[in-house]
Amino acid sequence: MTTLVVCLDRTDDVGRKTGLRTPIVGWEGVRALVTDVGLADPEDSGVNSLLETLRVAQSLRDDDEEPVVAVVSGDRESMVSADRAVARQLDELIATHDPDSAVVVIDSAEDERLVPIVESRVRVDSVDRVVVRQARDIESTYYLLKQFLADEELRQTVLVPIGLTLLVFPMLATVVGPAEGAAAITTFIGLFLLYKGFSVDEILTGLARRARESLYTGQVSVVTYVVATGLTLVGLFAGGLGVSSLEDPQGVFVPAMRFAFDSVPWLAAAALTASAGRLLDEIIGEEPLRSSYLNLPFVVVSVGLVVRGFSAYFLEQGGFVEPFVVPAIDVGALSIDSFAVTAGERLAMFVAAAFLLSLLGVRVASTFSGTTLEESDPGDGRRTSKPDSELTDGGSKADVDEHSDSSR
């Protein structure tokens, strides 16, 4: 079997340093070329490539094969003309020696671009890339950088922020000073790292996709989400007004309790509206109801009651809100004078109401979860679970009764 062992030189280093024209074929010709190139430039890695070509040919000869050693070079005019020159020389070698396969020897990424040209003309069994031992780290770094620059996502993630930093920092340093410019740049980089670290882009993309799907399918939750957003803004505004009304706030605790006391009813209403809209979508849809959607409104109201109760307790203890007074009741024979509820009693009432409401939510979720709108009973409006006969893989209710009669 004839094997072509070819050393590729795209930039024609051999011709430029020795004045010889390629292709150079034969063991003696390539060995003489090693001496000429080594004398012209002892530091050239092409010397190692030529020696590796001779070593591979000798190894094939030891295995009783017939190697044909050759060196092929391009030219220095342009990359296109260099590739065409290599293709022309390969055609001459293949027409003369008719090899069954080829072993390609290269020493740089530039020469590696010629491998497809060889593969288009003869079967390539091996590509031997020669890396000089002293320059292995540099060569590996080059290939890593080449792979990095070939990745579009990595370029946009790393190179774009670095480029913006190098452009913006001189302008900021000129306008506001080096320290302020460095602070602004580091703040921007920190925000960008947090943005990528928390995958904010993926979260925003998911929200936009779900919003688009909701608009196209006409879900009720689209309207309720808009209403919930408005209620949230109202709650934040009410909390801010409550904090601003404090004459002499001491520390952070009292303003935080005032903000919670004034904003929690609106925020709870916003969460309740959003959860109610999502629950309506589940009820209208054909999928079985999930317990999480059924229990969520009760949990929202329970949490709101607890937060409202504790914030009212602390504010009343500090004298920032008035005690709750139950008005007088006078209905026929029933007459109850008005009385004030202490802060502890009001907190206990809120906590007890939240606890009972959460238990009610668990009960409702366990009763109605797993049902659909079609399974509700039109007579009393209650939902029923699937009969046992529908939960089995085969058979009907009549089959179950027949089986029971036969077993008696």
Automatic annotation (TrEMBL):
The keyword Transmembrane applies. Residues 371-408 are annotated as: Disordered. It holds the Pfam family DUF373. The chain crosses the membrane at residues 158-176, 182-199, 220-243, 263-281, 293-315, 347-365. The keyword Transmembrane applies. It comes from the Archaea. Keywords: Membrane, Transmembrane, Transmembrane helix. InterPro entries: DUF373 (IPR007254). Residues 379-389, 396-408 have a biased composition (Basic and acidic residues). This is DUF373 family protein. It comes from Natribaculum luteum. The lineage of its organism: Archaea, Methanobacteriati, Methanobacteriota, Stenosarchaea group, Halobacteria.
